[in-house]
Amino acid sequence: MASREKQLSELVQTSDPPRSQLAELVGRLTYPFLRGEPPEPRPATGFFTDTTVCIGCKACEVACKQWNQLPSDGFNWSGNSYDNTTELSASTWRHVKFVEQFSPDPAPTDPVHNRWLMMSDHCKHCLAAPCHQACPTGAIIQNEFENVYIQADICNGCSSCVAACPFGVVARSDLGGHSHKCTLCYDRQRDGLEPACAKACPTQSIHFGPVDELREHARQRVEELHRRGVTDAYLYGDSATDTYSELHSFYLLVDRPSVYGLPDDPFNPWLHMLGDYARSIAGGLAAIVVLLVVVFLLR
Ligand code: SF4
Ligand code: SF4
Ligand code: SF4
Prior knowledge:
The protein is of the alpha+beta class.
């Protein structure tokens, strides 16, 4: 990966070939109406985040801000452990959570009640993403890597995606009025680079790669932890449930999901909406039948 970065930095930078002013004008006027060639599908990529080796250094948070040129959220003390970011937002696409579990007993014997859980949180890149399903403008797409990507220039700021995401990930910016979240560093992936956050992580808590390989690696890691006595270790989101699809960014946790601020049983709101649509159609049909009966009787 490092050699690929060196190759890219050594490429000669060129601009577009010069065009006549008329051709330039015609090109600009017709470009929005041209249908481009869709990119070739690539193996689905994602993250496996092993929270047991996260040290809470926030290098991932900083790398995400730097690479994506996201503004600072200010310097505010939250009073919540070392977490002064507090949540994901339109300008914070990665957030390191700190969960303190300390016993009031000054000499406790159980290490499970004296530990610090840390977890680097971000978009889960759900296989069937409610934000994607809710977007009325087509601004949210699944790109060729099967990552969920927001095209901010098409977003109309309606915030349907904000309401739909069960993980509280996506947020609308007060500055531009568009929704934003982690892009899974689409620009870097297209150049054959790994995402900035994974590259910056010093403990390899954040693994990036093809989802199939990540799943295999994650399951081996859980088995290894079980052998070493960490029997609480399990994977969150690596496979689908009755109410939610698999996540392409999944986690290894050692406590209940809600302890980390994740829903214990995520639910896709679309499942409710199917019933709502069915009831609306049934109600409409019933109204038409009643209307026809009334018209028939009045004749
Ligand atoms: S975590 Fe939320 S924002 Fe990310 S893909 Fe899933 S529904 Fe969309
Ligand atoms: S993949 Fe890129 S955009 Fe997403 S959290 Fe990591 S650095 Fe930020
Ligand atoms: S860079 Fe790695 S170790 Fe540091 S906070 Fe992020 S995930 Fe944890």
